[in-house]
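Before we proceed, please read the two lines closing this message. Let me know whether the structure tokens fit the sequence:

…
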Amino acid sequence: MYDLENNTWVKSEDSGEMTIGVTSLLSAIAGKFTSARIRPVGTTVKRVSSLGTLESLKFVGPIPSPISGIVSAVNGEVIKRPKLLNDAPYTEGWIVRLKPLALQTERGFLSRAADATDTLKKRIAEFHARCFKAFPDHEMYEIGTECSAVLVHLNELLATALVGDIVHLVTDDPTSYVEMVRWTDQTGHVFVDWRQEGNLFHFIVRKEQ
């Protein structure tokens, strides 16, 4: 279930606890997360009060709890690697588990996935959010540049990037798809995702070596 107003989700566990995280829409709006501070186990929170604080290069804000409860577990991996919130917001990037205190009365504030679709579509359009298969560590905008020159710039960036880093490349060269496929075959880097929007091509690639 989703708290659409606050960009959080809730999942019921067999233990009766509720796992909570943030949506991929928040990730797309905020950009790459750089810090996550989470309230400790044993903390009692009311609905919409803060579970902690998230920071990105263009966002600092609280994590409003979608339900009232007692914190029973904290995801330490998110504290160590905040980008998990971008890369896997619904799986490894969960934030806390709560023992719910008023779930029956608070269910009315939450939306099921099927009921959330239209609202999410509107917000995606409103924020011009893009969700790719992997969240970028680096952005490259190469408009009006021939693809051969674009690939030179991409190689220069990857030469200093870490293995596993993700690059989002935007180009308007109409030959770019064919050239990108050839480039990945030659370099061994991974072609993760791509799409065309108007005359712009978006590519997601991952450094492999």
In short: The longest strand covers residues 190-197. The two ends are 39 Å apart (CA to CA). The chain has two domains: 2-126, 138-206.
